[in-house]
Amino acid sequence: MTRKPSEVLIMAAEIMQQNGWHRGYYFKSVAGHATRRSPCCVLGAVGIAVCGNPVRPSGLTVASAGGFLRRILGQCPASWNDRVCRSKHQAVAALVAAAHLATSEGQ
Prior knowledge:
This protein is mainly α. The chain has five helices and no strands. It has one domain (5-104). α1 (5-19) crosses α2 and α2 runs antiparallel to α3 (60-73).
């Protein structure tokens, strides 16, 4: 079953709240391995929400969720995460705001 972008974004916010926030790559790895409990960037959290595992996010659902994030942030979510964002709280708030935008548009 394909999830709506709003559902994916809320799940991503919950994942980041539990796992922690990371910069520089989608996931923080230990000894070259990441798990679904690894700290992640905003797009990494979306990837875990869609796939259940730490994989580089791709696909239509990820693209749609990323589009709502881009609209909220006004720039590429990966760049925002690595250059502008300053805390897990700020990253979670962005994911929730993007989820609300998607919900308001029936997505």
